[in-house]
Specification:
Strand order of the largest sheet: 1-2
Largest sheet: 2 strands, antiparallel
Helix content: 55-70%
Number of helices: 8
Mean pLDDT: 90
Strand content: under 5%
Number of strands: 2
Number of domains: 1
CATH topology: Arp2/3 complex 21 kDa subunit ARPC3
CATH architecture: Orthogonal Bundle
Order of helices and strands: HEEHHHHHHH
Amino acid sequence: MLNKNLGVWIEGTIMAALAMALSFIPLEIGSSFSISLGMIPLVLYSFRRGFLPGFVAGFLWGVLHFLLGKVYFLSVPQVLIEYLIAFAFTGFSGIFAKQVQQAVQGQKKWFKWILIGTLVGTVARYFWHFIAGMIFWGDYAFGGMSPFVFSLVMNGASGLASAAVTLGVLAILAPKMPELFIPKNSPFLLTTEESSVSNSK
């Protein structure tokens, strides 16, 4: 049991590091719009391991921003919300780990569940970016735009773009490499009979 749990957390640490590495690919326009490629490994890990491991890995991803000096700092509450809380909430994709894993095994409705899980993780994360943008970044709004509208538009655009890229990559991987979504010790592994029934539906 100890080795099993240790493997989960080591895997989460690796995924957080990979997410951080992808964050250095320049897909940003100023400090308001970016496509977050790090969502790809974090959402995948959340589908593999569930909500709590995904939440912890997301939190670690946020911590790595501080360690590697990739933080836009306005105030302590702002960085806590935008880096520690927001990134951790990506793990909410893991709420749908069971549905994704079983759908990928049966090769039925997997796109639906990956779509839902990706959107939930994205909305959960970017909700906090939206809150921080409205409270802390309002002075940077374009052309007198209200902080609410500015944050909604910029974070909404970033969230949709990040979700689209994440969904695109995972949709390519799911039918070709379903084992990426399903650890060997997954409690959601289907039996041969269950898989046959799922495929026949």
